[in-house]
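Quick note —
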Amino acid sequence: APEFACDFGKIMQAEAQRGFKGKTEVVVSFEYDGVNVQKAIVSNNTANVEQVFTYTYSDYMNPFYKLFSHSNDNNAYNQSKNAPATIHETNSAWNSTTWDYTYTYPSVDHKYPTQMTEKKVTTQVIGNMTNTINNTTSYFYEYDD
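Predicted structure written out below.
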């Protein structure tokens, strides 16, 4: 995305100098709805695996907008102007598993969240059995003026 000023080539060279070896080809595609990512597709062409993230958004501002992240989790989180309301994730390596995230903002300062609650539901279907795991995490944000 044009918002990022990061030279991945330099990062990869530094990794190679530290002894990391191997080659992985990953392609990330984004579909935007205005200033927010509506869908992100992460294709690991080396492993033939595809992750798909679909997003909805709150009216609050995203405190991580335009910050660099090397994490695969919720891939477009820092590329959207608004804070997420929901994220749905699938992964072709785990065809029977989905991840659904719901975000609420119990406390805000103007348009920026000062607290966020993330509810993550992992659903796995194996034959006629459905396994559901629920996790809830609370985050607190402080801003410097």
